[in-house]
Write a structure and sequence with these properties.
Elements: H1 15-19, E1 27-28, E2 35-48, E3 58-60, E4 63-65, E5 80-82, E6 84-94, H2 96-101, E7 117-130, H3 132-135, H4 138-141, H5 164-175, E8 177-190, E9 193-200, H6 230-233, E10 237-249, E11 252-262, E12 291-295, E13 306-315, E14 318-327, E15 333-337, E16 375-380, E17 384-395, E18 400-414, H7 422-425, E19 435-450, E20 461-472, E21 493-503, E22 506-514, E23 518-527, E24 535-544, E25 548-559, E26 562-573, E27 590-598
Parallel strand pairs: 12-16
Antiparallel strand pairs: 1-2, 2-5, 2-6, 2-27, 3-4, 6-7, 7-8, 8-9, 9-10, 10-11, 11-13, 13-14, 14-17, 15-16, 17-18, 18-19, 19-20, 20-23, 21-22, 23-24, 24-25, 25-26, 26-27
Length: about 600
């Protein structure tokens, strides 16, 4: 169950993406301007301003319940939480002139029955590095905080201690450095058709921060954490994108059809956020041996391909779109397997894990190796269908733009207490099953420029706010406890343990974090500029109506080609709650110092 923490990748609030990084201004490499190079690089230092949670017991009525909601490894206030180095270089080459002049094999394109326009290719290199695992505080740069785990094997289950060396190697492999050819595609137009073929990113919809129709490219939070902007967390896919421009169609204008087909096996939960990262969810940060997780991605085939189509058009002064997606979400479907009956007996059969562990778990069945773990978790990516539409229109009289979006998610992964509680399903079977359900998602957004001359007599303020509604259809119950004090097994939950409840006959029974049937979320961003755009203060706010806040005041100083940004991220919640999931990271307050270089 270790990797279930990655469900948050799809919904966590990336405050930096609200403010939006300025795009690099590409420079021409030739006289004609057909070859352009853009480079953006930055380094940051993110310092924690509070101690991470160490699992202080929760009080429920007159009882104090042991908590597993602590963060591993523990990090004190004032310690470095991130030292990120980032570089992105984009090369764009338009080859129309080379085709016309018949240079090399490009002369073959002159024999096509159609004429290519705006033909070219695009390459993007991206490199990332986090120095926290080399010269950061000892909880991240050494194995000191892992060592106590070696002293507590679960003897009653014949469990061996975690392989700390392997966990540290995995941490460094996943979260220390990454270099890749990020995007590489060909594109051209002919007549009314535009196509782009290759590794690329495609974003639909009108929402910022949260994804509704934007469920095309997976989001990766394994490297850098949830405060990294969405544009840096999107994973490119091998994709064919087509656009057909219709033009005027009756009362509709500027009409076009767009579709894509992505044959790729990347999903947001592979790789997961590794144990030992500063951004792991509570109760999932430490390596474990009693639970072994197996992750399964879709196959790289047409059968498992992503695809979608949308129609975009203008009607009067509004822009509309209608879309359909067949895709995979970043939240995995999870199914637990364990032995039938309680109490659980010894499980270490001393045999290696099977190459393909997709089988019903049978305890010590000699034909089905259990790898020495009493519980197996299978993470899979079910196909999710998304139906939705958007509408955007401007009101120039009040300098505003209104945006709205609606999306219906069919068969998205969901969870109940019974699915993740072996003490419940273990009495009757070997698995808690897998659950999918539908939800309705709405967005209302408003962007406005306005004067506030008392604070800034020379420039306007820009404000953008978004209101999100998510309603789960046929949601499971919400009552946490039954009248006899036992956890309610049939309630909507997140796969995160809030408390461990002592029960008769079993040592500790997990109580999961509840997920409300209806979630309400509000975002706000305020910005302005001083001294000819050289000083840019901002304030971002995120409010989960379940009782969680994010505040982020910041300021960016610009002296081209350099930018200095200082911001303070405050995440506040009294208890662990569902909804957006912000409360799960309530102990990660930090201040960031960042220097960008852009050409």
């Amino acid at each position: 169950m270790r990797r279930l923490r990655v469900w948050l990748a799809a919904t966590l609030f990336g405050v930096g993406s609200l403010a939006g990084a300025r795009e690099a201004v590409a420079v021409s490499l030739d006289r004609e301007g057909t070859m352009k190079l853009g480079v953006r690089t930055y380094v940051n230092a993110r310092v924690g301003t509070e101690n991470t949670h160490n699992g202080v017991p929760n009080r429920v009525g007159s009882r104090i319940l042991p908590s597993t909601s602590g963060t591993f490894p523990f990090s004190a206030a004032g310690h470095l939480r991130q030292n990120r180095f980032f570089i992105e270089a984009e090369f764009d080459h338009r080859i129309d002139r080379l085709i016309q002049e018949g240079v090399g094999p490009l002369s073959l394109l002159q024999g096509l029955p159609f004429r290519l326009r705006n033909a070219g290719y695009h390459l993007t290199y991206r490199g990332e590095f986090d120095g926290i695992y080399d010269w950061g505080p000892r909880e991240y740069s050494t194995a000191d905080f892992f060592e106590p785990l070696l002293r507590f094997p679960i003897a009653a289950l014949n469990q061996t201690a975690p392989d700390i060396a392997a966990a540290r190697r995995h941490l460094r492999k996943v979260a220390s450095h990454r270099e890749r050819l990020f995007q590489a595609y060909l594109e051209a137009s002919t007549g009314r058709v535009f196509f782009r073929l290759g590794r690329q990113v495609l974003s639909w919809g009108e929402a910022d921060v949260f994804q509704l129709l934007d469920h095309i490219n997976p989001l990766d939070s394994s490297f850098g954490g949830f405060l990294i902007p969405l544009d840096e967390r999107r994973v490119p896919l091998d994709m064919l994108r087509l656009q057909y421009r219709i033009g005027t169609l009756g009362p509709l204008s500027d009409t076009f059809l767009e579709s894509f087909l992505a044959v790729d096996n990347k999903v947001g939960f592979i790789p997961a956020i590794p144990p030992g990262s500063p951004w792991t969810l509570p109760s999932f940060g430490a390596p474990r041996t009693e639970v072994r997780t197996f992750s399964f991605a879709p196959s790289r085939s047409l059968r498992d391909a992503r695809g979608g189509v949308r129609m975009v058009f203008n009607l009067e002064d509004a822009t509309f779109s209608v879309a359909y997606l067949s895709t995979y979400f970043d939240t995995p479907a999870a199914q637990l397997f364990t032995v039938r009956g309680l109490p659980i007996e010894a499980f270490n059969d001393g045999k290696p894990c099977p190459i393909d562990p997709r089988f019903p778990f049978r305890g010590n069945d000699p034909t089905r190796n259990n790898c020495g773990s009493p519980v197996h978790v299978h993470l899979t990516a079910p196909r999710v269908q998304v139906f939705g539409s958007t509408v955007t229109f401007a009101l120039p009289q009040i300098y505003s733009v209104f945006r709205s979006e609606v999306a219906y998610f069919k068969d998205e992964p969901a969870f109940t207490q019974r699915q993740f509680d072996p003490f419940l399903f273990g009495r009757d079977g070997t698995t808690g099953g897998r659950r999918l359900r539908d939800s309705i998602n709405l967005l209302f957004g408003w962007d406005v420029n306005f004067w506030l001359r008392l604070l800034n007599p020379n420039n306007t303020f820009f404000a953008t706010t978004q209101f999100f509604v998510k309603h789960i259809r046929n949601a499971a119950g919400s009552r946490v406890f039954n009248p006899d004090g036992t956890p309610n097994p049939d309630r909507e939950v997140l796969p995160v343990i809030d408390t461990l409840l002592p029960q008769l006959g079993v040592p500790l029974e997990p109580v999961m974090v509840s997920q409300p049937a209806t979630s309400l979320l509000q975002t706000l961003l305020l910005t302005t500029s001083y001294r000819g755009g050289q000083v840019n203060p901002s304030f971002a706010l995120f409010y989960d109506w379940g009782g969680a806040f994010v505040y982020q005041p910041g300021v960016t100083l610009i002296r081209d080609p350099f930018r200095l940004t200082i911001d303070y991220s405050i995440l506040d919640a009294h208890r662990l709650k569902g909804g957006s999931g912000i409360s799960l990271l309530r102990d990660r307050d930090n201040v960031q110092f960042r220097i960008d270089y852009v050409i």
